[in-house]
Amino acid sequence: MATILNKLPEYARPGRKEEYPYDQWFNGQIWELIEGEDYKSDTRYFKTRIRAAADRRGIKVTVAHTFDTEGKGRIVVQAKPQDYDRDRANSGPGWIRSE
Asked: Which of 98, 99, 25, 92 is nearest to 57 (CA)?
């Protein structure tokens, strides 16, 4: 007999299931991700994937990368609070006009 469901089951959702725990990484803490351990793709490309995942969720993130002496990539990611305003954060009473 047919059944009414409250939401689509995981197997019926469009697109692929995300292979990385973006929701965990976007919890506001500062995360350091290490190439080969936390992600498998090229570091620069993976930075783009992180930004795209954040955009899909309506989250603003700070993302930076570097490479260690052995060439292994490292990415730092932190989600910003929902009410974060970049312009307001960058302009404050600490700004001193130079003459």
From this structure: 25
